[in-house]
Amino acid sequence: VPFAQFLAGAALMRSRADVAGGTLTVSQTKWMVQPGGGVNFLIGKGWGIVGEADFRRILLDENEDGRSGLNQLELFTGIRFAF
Length: 83
Hints:
By secondary structure, the chain is mainly beta. The chain is built from one helix and four strands. It has a four-stranded antiparallel sheet, with no helix packed on it.
């Protein structure tokens, strides 16, 4: 059974470094969109094996962040079952 999904929201980006005996932490929240899809292979009644691929685009400010966006690919496989 094929499926598709679309997510939109915010992504938290955080960096941490040890500097001169202390810790420097910088975090930013940016908008993101994530379309994706996959296939659920039905194995038995109420359960199956799922494979999914998602493309995430984090929207950045080129003047502030040095580029217009960050692209990420997510691949997922697992077992899905109904309660």
